[in-house]
From TrEMBL:
Domain CBS: 6-67, 76-132
Originating organism: Maricaulis maris
Stored PANTHER family: CBS DOMAIN-CONTAINING PROTEIN, CBS DOMAIN-CONTAINING PROTEIN CBSX3, MITOCHONDRIAL
Keywords: CBS domain
Lineage top rank: taxon: Bacteria
Stored InterPro entries: CBS_dom, CBS_dom_sf, CBSX3_CBS_dom, Diverse_CBS-Domain
Protein name in UniProt: CBS domain protein
Electron transport as UniProt keyword: no
SUPFAM superfamilies documented for this protein: CBS-domain pair
Segments crossing the lipid bilayer: none
CDD domains: CBS_pair_bac_euk
Amino acid sequence: MIVEAILRGKGRDVITIGEMATLEEAARLLDAHAIGALLVEDGQGRPVAVLSERDIVREMALNGAACLHRPVAHALTQAFVTAGRNAGLNELMVLMTERRVRHVPIFDGDALLGIISIGDVVKAKIADMEAETAALQAYIRS
């Protein structure tokens, strides 16, 4: 399965935040949308990073509640990990594991198509396994 198929199933909506917004604003957006990460945009609206719940928790642990008034850009520590629309499910699993990320924006050239989470990957993998199991059971019965 390629990631574009996952995006077709889950939708392509992406919640973004500017890099100069505060971490408190980011936390409120995460909560309001019941999501685990935001796509961070620079001043020109270009995607530059992913901010996760984990990033906010790390900042809180290191700097206390005062960090919530700092800009999102202050909490960004990782390189921007992305994948293309034709990336395979296994390729995405390896990327997430090796880079230790749980959310990967998917691009077609410069165009953002959506974000795939580790939960999306697990659901797709389970669906693939169930389809394979059903095919094997049908083969055995025939």
